[in-house]
Amino acid sequence: MNINRLVIQRGAAMNPIASFLKYFNWHIAVNSLFARLILQGVIITISLAVVSQLAGTLIGLALYFLRRSRFVPFRWLAEAYIWFFRGTPLLVQILFAYNALPYLGLSNPLRNLDIFTQLGFVSIYTDAMLAGLVALSLNEGAYMAEIVRAGIDSIDIGQMEAAKSLGMTYAQGMRRIVLPQAMRVIIPPLGNEFNNMLKTTSLVYVIGVYDLLGAAKAIGDFSFRTLELLVTASIWYLAMTTVWGFVQAYIERKFNAANIDPALREGSWWRRMLGIRGRPAPAPALAGGALFAPGVEPPSIQGDRR
Amino acid sequence: MAVYSQASQAQVYKATAPMVDAQNVEKTFHRNPVLRGVSMQVRKGEVVAIIGPSGSGKTTFLRCLNHLEKINGGRIYIDGELMGYREQPDGRLVEDSESNIARMRAQIGMVFQRFNLFAHLTALQNVMEAPIQVKHMPRQMAEEQARELLRKVGLEYKADAYPSRLSGGQQQRVAIARALAMDPKLMLFDEATSALDPELVGEVLKVMRQLAEEGMTMVVVTHEMGFAREVADRVIFMDGGYIVEQGSPDQVINHPTQERTQNFLRKVL
To answer: Would you say residue A138 lies in a domain?
Structure first.
């Protein structure tokens, strides 16, 4: 008798997957995918990610020029900025921004622009959204600064000298010659940053933003179906990052249209999505062979990038 | 009246000024003197070759001429205009505004040892870029001119090729066309053939020789003694940051008077 009870108890404990599946309701997870609050959360998550990434990229670019400034305090300023935002947790920065915002006495431009309610969504806490936006942008700027610097500094200094020798100013040379080339170096890590950003925005749920995670937590905790709603959120996050993987592959193909340096080309989109940096693609067969006179030796790259 | 005569004096000077007038140019890299007072003139239409061992300062001097390097002493006048600096009333030099430097550089073509073609642009776009950006030339006009220049250097059929698809010699010829697109009054060549495979040197020298025959004012830093001997009007030998010897190619290359020139030529010839 005792032995029998033990066996039953052990059996129950030994098969956690079965007991989990018995509790877990897939219908709730799937049916919640298009719940109004969740859809609103998706929109907020995408908006936060896109705006923060754009702002962060611009901040990163600005930091590059501060760092390269002749005016030494500007350089210190940039270094201090990067040191601070890379050295403290993003969660702390988000909480700090949220709690500091009221003391800054800034009117919140998002507050009067409640497009979400006009679209029929539940109203949202725009103060928290703005705080999240500020923290994410400033933090991303510090990371983008490194990426932008690596991109620009990878371009041979001779490119700028050639531009200057033709009568271009530094700004013209940057805009027309150096930055377009640096973009090819910047875009792959920028794509990875955005993939990260799509997921990192979930941190703002702690300050009460109903982003995707915030919405899922709200519904899940209210209905005691937290697990199902977390799966709902995960499906959405996966969907967003997968779509982004395609978009990124497309953008990179476009920017590599010149095929300037085959060694820089990335592998296939699925490799990138799985995070496999992979071997560089093999040099292209001489497509468009009409351009190349027979017997011409393979391209020397010494002239454009060392 | 006095003001008027001053102005006309300046005009007369500009009309008769040498294309390059370098006076006692000094340049120091981290306390390491590279140019120790170099003075030279280049008349309009003259081809001057600068030769000398590596480290003699010849490349640095050339880069000073279009202010890619700042100078620590002396003055450089290009066609009568002070290059890179403005003279204060008290005689001190302060660096000129960026737009002024750019305006003067636009009239000076430069060809680099490592070509420095814009890697993201085709050969044609490389040649079109500066006239459009700097001279605000209409696109169509710039393209016609670029095709004409590519024809001149024998690369019209490579107009749509990217630099990485061109051989070194072809890249350098595109680079020459790119410099010519600004219609420069002075061309600087910084060891234009030193990075080339030996069999590709000839095609570049041919273009340079053609330019010289057309009357272009050229300063050519080179290791090609044959080219210096045949094309240059004057040869300058530099060593240790000084001009050691200068004169006609025959004088300097065939009958050098200075021991350092003789030593150098013995090694390279």
So the answer is: yes
